[in-house]
Amino acid sequence: MKWSNRIQIITGQTLMHIAMHLLVIAALIWGWKHKALVDVCSTLVAMYALVFVAMLVTQRIPRLRTLGDYLEEATTTYYFGAAMMTLFLVSRIYHNNLLLACLGVVMLLGPALVSLLVKEPPRRIENKRS
Protein backbone atom coordinates (compact mmCIF):
# COMPACT_ATOMS: atom_id res chain seq x y z
CA MET A 1 0.00 0.00 0.00
CA LYS A 2 1.31 3.42 -0.95
CA TRP A 3 2.00 5.93 1.81
CA SER A 4 -0.46 8.38 0.24
CA ASN A 5 -3.22 5.78 0.53
CA ARG A 6 -2.39 5.23 4.19
CA ILE A 7 -2.62 8.96 4.87
CA GLN A 8 -5.96 9.11 3.07
CA ILE A 9 -7.31 6.19 5.09
CA ILE A 10 -6.12 7.64 8.40
CA THR A 11 -7.21 11.26 7.84
CA GLY A 12 -10.10 10.79 5.43
CA GLN A 13 -8.61 13.51 3.21
CA THR A 14 -6.60 13.26 0.03
CA LEU A 15 -3.07 14.62 -0.05
CA MET A 16 -4.29 17.48 -2.24
CA HIS A 17 -6.80 18.54 0.43
CA ILE A 18 -4.17 18.34 3.15
CA ALA A 19 -1.79 20.44 1.05
CA MET A 20 -4.57 23.01 0.45
CA HIS A 21 -5.29 23.13 4.20
CA LEU A 22 -1.64 23.77 4.94
CA LEU A 23 -1.36 26.45 2.25
CA VAL A 24 -4.43 28.28 3.56
CA ILE A 25 -3.09 28.14 7.11
CA ALA A 26 0.34 29.35 5.95
CA ALA A 27 -1.25 32.22 3.99
CA LEU A 28 -3.33 33.28 7.00
CA ILE A 29 -0.31 33.18 9.33
CA TRP A 30 1.76 35.13 6.79
CA GLY A 31 -0.98 37.74 6.46
CA TRP A 32 -1.28 38.04 10.22
CA LYS A 33 2.48 38.41 10.72
CA HIS A 34 2.79 41.05 7.97
CA LYS A 35 -0.40 42.93 8.93
CA ALA A 36 -1.99 42.02 5.59
CA LEU A 37 -4.72 39.74 6.92
CA VAL A 38 -7.50 41.68 5.16
CA ASP A 39 -5.73 41.36 1.80
CA VAL A 40 -5.01 37.67 2.32
CA CYS A 41 -8.58 36.92 3.43
CA SER A 42 -10.10 38.79 0.52
CA THR A 43 -7.83 36.93 -1.90
CA LEU A 44 -8.72 33.55 -0.37
CA VAL A 45 -12.46 34.35 -0.46
CA ALA A 46 -12.16 35.45 -4.10
CA MET A 47 -10.34 32.20 -4.92
CA TYR A 48 -13.09 30.24 -3.16
CA ALA A 49 -15.71 32.06 -5.24
CA LEU A 50 -13.83 31.20 -8.46
CA VAL A 51 -13.60 27.54 -7.48
CA PHE A 52 -17.30 27.54 -6.61
CA VAL A 53 -18.27 29.00 -10.00
CA ALA A 54 -15.95 26.53 -11.74
CA MET A 55 -17.64 23.70 -9.81
CA LEU A 56 -21.08 24.84 -10.95
CA VAL A 57 -19.94 25.00 -14.58
CA THR A 58 -18.08 21.69 -14.64
CA GLN A 59 -20.90 19.75 -13.03
CA ARG A 60 -23.18 20.60 -15.94
CA ILE A 61 -20.76 19.28 -18.58
CA PRO A 62 -20.75 15.46 -18.74
CA ARG A 63 -17.11 15.16 -19.84
CA LEU A 64 -15.92 17.31 -16.92
CA ARG A 65 -18.09 15.65 -14.29
CA THR A 66 -15.15 14.08 -12.43
CA LEU A 67 -13.45 17.48 -12.17
CA GLY A 68 -16.76 18.94 -10.97
CA ASP A 69 -17.00 16.26 -8.29
CA TYR A 70 -13.49 17.05 -7.09
CA LEU A 71 -14.24 20.78 -7.02
CA GLU A 72 -17.46 20.05 -5.13
CA GLU A 73 -15.47 18.18 -2.51
CA ALA A 74 -13.02 21.09 -2.22
CA THR A 75 -15.76 23.73 -1.91
CA THR A 76 -17.58 21.65 0.69
CA THR A 77 -14.38 21.29 2.68
CA TYR A 78 -13.56 24.99 2.59
CA TYR A 79 -17.07 26.47 2.93
CA PHE A 80 -16.81 27.14 6.65
CA GLY A 81 -13.33 28.62 6.35
CA ALA A 82 -14.51 30.93 3.60
CA ALA A 83 -17.57 31.81 5.70
CA MET A 84 -15.39 32.75 8.67
CA MET A 85 -13.05 34.81 6.49
CA THR A 86 -16.06 36.58 4.97
CA LEU A 87 -17.40 37.27 8.44
CA PHE A 88 -14.01 38.71 9.39
CA LEU A 89 -14.02 40.96 6.32
CA VAL A 90 -17.57 42.14 7.03
CA SER A 91 -16.61 42.84 10.65
CA ARG A 92 -13.95 45.26 9.40
CA ILE A 93 -16.72 47.31 7.72
CA TYR A 94 -19.72 46.92 10.05
CA HIS A 95 -19.18 47.15 13.78
CA ASN A 96 -22.66 46.03 14.85
CA ASN A 97 -22.25 42.83 16.90
CA LEU A 98 -25.90 41.80 16.52
CA LEU A 99 -25.71 42.11 12.74
CA LEU A 100 -22.48 40.10 12.67
CA ALA A 101 -23.95 37.41 14.91
CA CYS A 102 -27.05 37.08 12.71
CA LEU A 103 -24.89 36.95 9.58
CA GLY A 104 -22.70 34.26 11.16
CA VAL A 105 -25.73 32.13 12.08
CA VAL A 106 -27.17 32.49 8.58
CA MET A 107 -23.83 31.58 6.98
CA LEU A 108 -23.37 28.50 9.16
CA LEU A 109 -26.95 27.22 9.10
CA GLY A 110 -27.74 28.21 5.52
CA PRO A 111 -26.33 25.14 3.73
CA ALA A 112 -27.91 22.75 6.24
CA LEU A 113 -31.33 24.36 5.87
CA VAL A 114 -31.10 24.44 2.09
CA SER A 115 -30.15 20.77 1.93
CA LEU A 116 -33.07 19.90 4.21
CA LEU A 117 -35.60 22.01 2.31
CA VAL A 118 -34.57 21.04 -1.21
CA LYS A 119 -35.99 17.64 -1.94
CA GLU A 120 -35.78 15.47 -4.97
CA PRO A 121 -39.04 15.19 -6.84
CA PRO A 122 -40.88 12.02 -5.84
CA ARG A 123 -40.45 9.16 -8.22
CA ARG A 124 -43.56 8.02 -9.93
CA ILE A 125 -44.36 4.41 -9.37
CA GLU A 126 -45.62 2.91 -12.55
CA ASN A 127 -48.26 0.26 -12.27
CA LYS A 128 -47.55 -2.77 -14.37
CA ARG A 129 -50.46 -3.87 -16.42
CA SER A 130 -50.93 -7.59 -16.66
Write structural notes for this entry:
The protein is mainly α and 130 residues long. Helices cover 78% and strands 0% of the residues. It has helices spanning 3-11, 15-33, 37-60, 65-93, 97-117. The protein is extended and about 70 Å long. The N and C termini lie far apart (54 Å). The model has no long low-confidence stretch (mean pLDDT 84).
Query: How many helical stretches?
Result: 5
Which residues sit in consecutive blocks of at least 5 with pLDDT less than 50? none
Largest sheet: none
**Large-scale geometry:** extended
What structural class do you assign from the helix and strand content?
Answer: mainly alpha
| Share of helix, binned | over 70%
Strand content: under 5%
* Spatial extent as radius of gyration: 20 Å
Summarize model confidence as the mean pLDDT: 84
Please report the distance between the alpha carbons of the first and last residues. Answer: 54 Å
Order of helices and strands: HHHHH
Number of strands: 0
SSE inventory with pairings:
Elements: H1 3-11, H2 15-33, H3 37-60, H4 65-93, H5 97-117
Structural descriptors:
extended, mainly alpha, 130 residues
Short characterization:
This protein is 78% helix and 0% strand. It has 130 residues and is mainly α. α2 runs antiparallel to α3.
